[in-house]
């Protein structure tokens, strides 16, 4: 974090409100607890942040007084306080998949010009809960609430990405594997085999398996416990989505899905005790 006194040679120093530098430094102290150590020494943090030890000590005491840090009286080290937990709990309580996804999905559609869907698992289908149409010509229109069987949709495969072979067989034991096109996977053994590739690459492809002339890539979205809770997919006509373009869109879908996962708390399981 740059402090108020930090400026690049080409920047004019921005006007700062009184006390802003102290706030910046206090936030930097809190962020110093984001690593694996549950307790930190004032001297270690002051050295990392380039602060005088007396300045760091004042910041630690102020944060402890406010409940953001807690002092271990036995060794003088500090750990995060209950106020941090309370804020985190409020954040988690306010999480809304649809609300968090909306701007990310919109940006992905604008950046790539192709249609983007947010889908969730329901029974043997992937169901679209948010759709943004692309800006390029010849868009294949998708509709909100559309259901596509798991075995012939990129979103469906992404939603199943964490299931091992045995779990996949149990999940799809009653699936009819109806053919929608000549490319639809029509038997469980083949589907299970293909899913090994999906797991390895981290994203899924629908290559004209649900609709002739349509290619779709999808990536999984995870909640704070690491469970796949949704999938983000990008679709377009096959003449635009050739091999190189498919790889590019898959990477973009993964970045967007990873960002949404992060906003949902994924990657912070140890913090929340999950």
TrEMBL record:
Transcription regulation is among the record's keywords: yes
Domain IclR-ED: 83-266
Keywords: DNA-binding, Transcription, Transcription regulation
Transcription regulation keyword on record: yes
Segments forming domain HTH iclR-type: 20-82
Domain of life: Bacteria
Membrane-spanning segments: none
InterPro entries: GAF-like_dom_sf (IPR029016), HTH_MetabolicPath_Reg (IPR050707), Tscrpt_reg_IclR_C (IPR014757), Tscrpt_reg_IclR_N (IPR005471), WH-like_DNA-bd_sf (IPR036388), WH_DNA-bd_sf (IPR036390)
Pfam families to which the protein is assigned, alphabetical: HTH_IclR (PF09339), IclR_C (PF01614)
PANTHER family attached to this UniProt entry: HELIX-TURN-HELIX TRANSCRIPTIONAL REGULATOR, ICLR FAMILY, HTH-TYPE TRANSCRIPTIONAL REPRESSOR ALLR
Descriptive protein name: IclR family transcriptional regulator
